[in-house]
Design a protein that fits this description.
alpha/beta; TIM Barrel; 4 domains; eight-stranded parallel β-barrel; three-stranded antiparallel beta sheet; 17 helices; 16 strands; 40% helix; globular; binds 3-methyl-2-oxobutanoic acid; binds zinc ion; 2-isopropylmalate synthase activity; metal-binding; Aldolase_TIM
Amino acid sequence: MSDQLIIFDTTLRDGEQSPGASMTKDEKLRIARQLERLKVDVIEAGFAASSNGDFDCVQSIASIIKDSTICSLARANDRDIARAAEALKPANRARIHTFIATSPLHMEKKLRMSPDEVFEQAKMSVRFARNLVGDIEFSPEDGYRSDPDFLCRVIEAVIAEGATTINVPDTVGYAIPELYGQFILNLRERIPNSDKAIWSVHCHNDLGMAVANSLAGVKIGGARQVECTINGLGERAGNCSLEEVVMAVKTRRDYFGLDVNIDAQHIVAASRLVSQTTGFVVQPNKAVVGANAFAHASGIHQDGVLKARDTYEIMRAEDVGWSANKIVLGKLSGRNAFKQRLQELGVVMDSESDINAAFARFKDLADRKSEIFDEDILALVHMEGAEAQAETYRFVSLSQASETGEQPKASVVLIAHGQEVRGESTGNGPVDASMKAIESQARSGAEMVLYAVNAISGSTESQGEVTVRLQQGGRIVNGVGADPDIVVASAKAYIAALNKLQNPTERVAAQG
Ligand code: KIV
Ligand code: ZN
């Protein structure tokens, strides 16, 4: 059996299914580039048949990414599969990932199909897909809650039709590590042609065991592909987190005996990018990418680490891309230094005019903040991209007054539908007044379901990064804004969320 573990990233497909995490095309392209830099083996770029927008994203990612295999999800029907194949045409290496539910509950209640019908549809779909693309992955959705005898029948048939990867999803996060590992092993041992395909694990985190289950699927079950997302992004409690599974396999190579292609030095930048794009803040104690993952607060630990790092550290922070939080640039830095730092951070800008625009924003920030950290530059570049898509509303300026015992007031100038307008309001605090001032002009009627502030680089001098989640007519969107002034960051985040609400994306759900 191979000692290479394939890393299949589904941040742009399963991760994006998380409510509020939907991304624009530009955001997806930026994340796809970062995944390529990370040396992810397979990027699931989307679900081409679900909407024209998703088709366009898969096609564009397939055109620009050269090193990773590009995959599109497709339900087990000819139309979805043909759409996926069409979108994947520009790819250097393409994969179609087709799926159909196989658990009794899903077949009866969701699909309203008999097991024999599901069996036939799975077989015919893989046969159809195999004529279009050589690399075919098949997933029996809700596989872990399926009857093993039926699953063996379906999987044997789809391998015979040419499926090259068999993925066994724990769709609802019900598995327990040892049982899931045994489940995969049992299938592999019972299915006569199981050695003709690579086995893959796909675990959801509802019981907090997605990473443990995936690793058990690898160690006990013999799977050689793990499906995962950056920061564990995904529906409900999320998917298996890429950074945790990769660092477990790398750090405990003595136990797993497996190699992964991932260039771990790009992990922290990937985590930041996904968090800033989606507005899903990474918890400080999150393994590998949380702000505290390498921080030693207790005196005993600090003393130990100073004497010998490995007393309390099993990984090196710099190996996963944590910089020493050093000041990189300031007010006097020139365009060349800025451009070089962007390259060192792995930020690719499409044109000189994009660099000029980012540099102008950098100068503006440096006027207000004496020390510019890598984190500031990444936030600034990301915000540049986000605002470039802002069609309906654009932030111009804000003034607010608050004094103990007085009701705070805010006045916000914005461009709305091409016209400069001013909104004014009072509120419980300056942030509340500013949001109400914007809403007095936008009149979206959206409900705010989350407001979160995060300091980008740790001190009061830092930029505040604000996430605003709005809900309107069943849709949930996140907006993110960054600025040294958190009231301004809040206004920008609110405007970013309003802009996302203006761009409805109708798509078919992958599950359900
Ligand atoms: O969780 C799941 O079952 C999925 C499939 C579509 C692979 O995401
Ligand atoms: Zn899933």
